[in-house]
């Protein structure tokens, strides 16, 4: 990974060392205080340029245009809410997505499969171990957002989300989030309603820099990407789980990627 990751600032290659332990502790502290942490300049500029050069042609040629209207829950029916509750109002999400099987040998695929990356994330999240996903499509995705396109408010299925921004847009495409909006014991529908109506003072907005690694607890943190105004936003999303062999269902693959089989199948 030398030359791809700034290992002087972020010594992922030296697990257990004093510098590695200090980095993990700092990430844990920021995560506890902010609900996320960001490692600016995680990817070297040379690796970032290479990643864009590798993936942008694939995005232009082979991407699945994921366009759908959905509510914050991705579900039509939610216990405790009437079907016409404003919380269930649908808004549009649109992006151009390529899957893990379309990134073989790329910078992003190599980073995802590097064991020390998962080891570092597990340590920060307080997990004994994290595994890469077995699903050849879902394991790592790259999305491009063109002008007018964005990602609607939602909660993630997994406990935490790991992204790496490869290209920032010229305007728009901001990351907005509200940490700990709900919990396992309390869905906080009233709080969700306030967020969607623009009445939540704890909603935060973040302009990520290209090359930055961002990790946040997405399961109970509502988040979205505002529509891009100009330029293009390109971001990779990595999926890790506490158990090996995790696969999406065919229904999930069809919904997210427009297909159920890997390219080689």
What does this structure look like?
The protein has a 7-stranded antiparallel β-sheet, sandwiched between helices. Helix 1 crosses helix 4 (115-125). It is built from 6 helices and 15 strands. Helices cover 26% and strands 25% of the residues. It is an alpha+beta fold. The mean pLDDT is 95. The chain has helices spanning 18-34, 45-62, 107-113, 115-125, 189-196, 250-257, and strands at 36-39, 64-70, 91-98, 131-132, 140-145, 151-154, 161-167, 171-172, 175-178, 204-206, 213-216, 222-225, 228-230, 233-238, 240-241.
The main β sheet shows up as: 7 strands, antiparallel
Helical fraction: 25-40%
Compute the CA-based radius of gyration: 18 Å
- Overall pLDDT: 95
How many helix segments? 6
- What characteristic shape results from the CA principal axes? globular
Strand element count: 15
Assembly status: single chain
Q: Which segments are poorly predicted (pLDDT under 50) over 5 or more consecutive residues?
A: none
Q: Strands of the biggest beta sheet: in what spatial order?
A: 1-11-7-14-5-3-2
Order of helices and strands: HEHEEHHEEEEEEHEEEEEEH
By helix and strand content, what is the structural category? Answer: alpha+beta
Distance between the termini: 30 Å
Percent of residues in beta strands:
15-25%
Short description:
The protein is of the alpha+beta class and 265 residues long.
List the helices and strands and how they pair.
Blueprint: H1 18-34, E1 36-39, H2 45-62, E2 64-70, E3 91-98, H3 107-113, H4 115-125, E4 131-132, E5 140-145, E6 151-154, E7 161-167, E8 171-172, E9 175-178, H5 189-196, E10 204-206, E11 213-216, E12 222-225, E13 228-230, E14 233-238, E15 240-241, H6 250-257
Antiparallel strand pairs: 1-11, 2-3, 3-5, 4-15, 5-14, 6-12, 7-11, 7-14, 8-13, 9-10, 9-12
Helix pairs in contact: 1-4
